[in-house]
Design goal:
The chain has about 210 residues and is mainly beta. The protein has two domains: about 30-130, TolB, C-terminal domain (Neuraminidase, 6 Propeller), CATH 2.120.10; about 135-205, no CATH class. It is about 0% helix and about 50% strand. It has strands spanning about 30-35, 40-45, 50, 60, 70-75, 75-80, 85-90, 95-100, 105-115, 120-125, 130, 135-140, 140-145, 155-165, 165-170, 190-195, 200-205. About 25% of the residues are buried.
Length: about 210
């Protein structure tokens, strides 16, 4: 089977598909996902394509390496998996970083559990891998950057971020005494917000 085929649904139920779109690669494509306003497709020879509309595609990577057989999006992160235990991640589908999977077994598919903020990977010989629960979120550079660290119901808006990083929020029932005239709930919930991003105040925090 030759790769490079992209089909577009002609109906809401995806029961009709238009003709194949042109592709910048002839490598077999094995998986596709969507997130952050971007389609990401992966395939043989570590091929990675991106598109903003599913029609026009750009090659982000192709190499003599093995296949990438699965890709998903969650927590503002693309995750792709492949042969020999390959796991790579990206915030935008363009810049990718290798992660240590702890195995050389071929990995075939990956999905994201939003409720528990964790990725699950499956592969040959019944292998199942699961990431630790994610407590931070990528915070890009720019103006009026709003991020929501998973699991805390908080939205943190930075007026200006000059260098990207990761932002986390954790909760506990104990903390420093509150300011005067500040009334705690019963039971109280304290929020500890941390970021590795470089930013310019002020910062707005909204709690659901």
């Amino acid at each position: 089977m030759n790769g490079g085929f992209h089909l577009k649904s002609a109906g809401k139920l995806s029961n009709q598909w238009g003709p194949p779109h042109s592709s910048p690669t002839s490598n077999d494509l094995l998986a596709v996902t969507y997130g952050n306003n971007t389609f990401v497709a992966v395939g043989l020879f570590s091929t990675i394509l991106t598109s903003t509309d599913g029609v026009k595609w750009t090659v982000q990577n192709t190499s003599p390496g093995g296949a990438l057989g699965g890709v998903t999006y969650g927590n503002d992160t693309f995750v792709a998996v492949g042969t020999l235990g390959t796991i790579i991640t990206s915030p935008d589908g363009k810049t990718w970083a290798s992660r240590n999977s702890g195995t050389n077994t071929d990995l075939h598919a990956v999905t994201y559990d939003d409720a528990n903020t964790t990725f699950v990977v499956v592969g040959e010989n019944g292998i199942i891998l699961q990431s630790d629960p994610i407590t931070s979120i990528y915070t890009p550079s720019g103006s009026n950057i709003a991020v929501s660290p998973p699991g805390t119901g908080t939205t943190i808006t930075f007026t200006s971020v000059t260098s990207p990083g990761n932002t986390s929020a954790t909760t506990s029932s104990h903390g420093a005494p509150p300011p005067a005239n500040f009334q705690l709930g019963n039971p109280p919930t304290y929020y500890d917000i941390q970021t590795t991003a470089t930013y310019t105040p002020p910062v707005k925090v909204c709690i659901k």
